[in-house]
Specification:
single chain, alpha/beta, TIM Barrel, 6-stranded parallel beta sheet, two-stranded antiparallel ribbon, 10 strands, 9% strand, globular
């Protein structure tokens, strides 16, 4: 949970849970280092639990209101000596527990908030100063999301010590991150999953079209990639494609890529697997939305379009069996004299919305395919 957005849900965190999470965090950080990577830790920018000001004389706080009906934690004025002491203690304990890091993630006024009478520029300078005092070599990592990072923040700090991890690189309305962020280094990024949803789907077409163009243009500030789902292990194909971007010299050919993925995934070439991933590429993996990964719907091809990708060559002896959805024996066979027509593995309807028993299957190409799928078994 983002501590800038809400303070607690259904009570406080127990000491036992804190101890377990500490051990888990240590394991994750150590494993990253074993793999040659540096973890990015949360940094300190002023949030604190309720009652902090009453226990710490001299603390000056700014109320932050609510986030989606939940109370946001208040913030310390970053210009005060109390903030400096808290930040120094935070970074010291962080390193004692988890070791050093090169990046510290902090978002001022994330999804709202209230700066009060504290100028954003002054707050940003104080936050960066506290980080530099504790970790001189560290980089301040900021999420590119909605209106963040704000221009007044960027203009006030040393941008050479900033890295923006863009959560919206795939959005249609986004065009020039160098202009948006004044040349600040950034990572091409996506948030393909919100709230632990288990659906598949991503804007892979935008990744393929944009990454190499943005990376290779003159004056580009793009320095890496950032894959930031709110749940893991849910969409291996999208993760695989995005993870390859930084290693490629040329743009991704999406059609070829998804077919090669199917070959690797299923251990060999299979026409049906290719057709299935063609359908997914043009539907679930080509979503369109105002906020990127928040949508789960397909933009160009609905369920009927995906069904149309079923095998299109009738087998030598198609089965005649009860339709699992609509009941009658479907005429799943090529009608006499209509060899040019195709079999979709389901039924030959005589008219939109009806399934045909074997004895009444269509005999002219004009009746196939219907203009709408059968509501019972989905053929068409």
């Amino acid at each position: 949970m983002d501590v800038a957005e809400h303070e607690r849900v259904r009570g406080t965190v127990s000491p036992e849970l804190l101890a377990k999470r500490t051990v888990l965090g240590q394991r994750i950080a150590n494993r990253l280092r074993e793999l040659g990577m540096s973890p990015i830790f949360p940094g300190y920018f002023g949030t604190f639990p309720g009652g902090f000001a009453e226990r710490n004389p001299g603390a000056r706080t700014i109320e932050q209101g609510t986030w989606n009906g939940l109370p946001r934690p208040e913030c310390l004025d970053p210009r005060t000596p109390v903030f400096e002491r808290v930040a120094a203690s935070f970074y010291r304990h962080k390193e004692e527990l988890f070791g050093p890091a090169l990046g510290y993630k902090m978002d001022l006024l994330h999804e709202g908030g209230n700066p009060g009478d504290v100028p954003v520029a002054d707050a940003a300078r104080a936050v960066q100063k506290a980080l530099a005092a504790a970790r001189p070599e560290a980089v301040w990592v900021i999420l590119g999301w909605q209106e963040n990072p704000r221009r007044e923040l960027l203009n006030a700090v040393d941008k050479s010590r900033l890295l923006v991890v863009d959560g919206l690189s795939e959005l249609e309305r986004i065009g020039d991150r160098e202009q948006d962020w004044g040349g600040t280094a950034y990572a091409f990024g996506t948030i393909p999953n919100f709230g632990g949803r288990t659906t598949i789907g991503a804007k892979t077409h935008m990744w393929a079209d944009r990454f190499t163009v943005w990376r290779d243009k003159p004056g580009s500030a793009l320095v890496g990639t950032a894959y930031m789902p709110e749940a893991a292990e849910r969409d291996p194909a999208a993760f695989e494609l995005f993870s390859e971007l930084a290693w490629r010299d040329t743009a991704v050919d999406s059609t070829a890529w998804f077919r090669e993925y199917a070959d690797a995934r299923y251990g060999g070439r299979d026409r049906h697997a290719h057709e299935a991933f063609d359908a997914l590429r043009e539907s679930a993996y080509e979503i369109s939305s105002a906020e990127g990964g928040r949508t789960t719907r397909s933009s160009r091809r609905g369920p009927a379009s995906v069904r149309a990708r079923a095998p299109t060559t009738p087998p030598a002896n198609p089965p005649s069996r009860p339709c699992s959805a609509c009941g009658p024996h479907c005429a799943a066979r090529t009608p006499t004299g209509t060899t040019s027509r195709t079999w979709d593995g389901r039924c030959w309807p005589t008219a939109p919305g009806s399934c045909s028993p074997s004895s009444s299957r269509p005999t002219s190409a004009a009746t196939w395919p219907p203009s709408a799928p059968c509501p019972g078994c989905g053929c068409g």
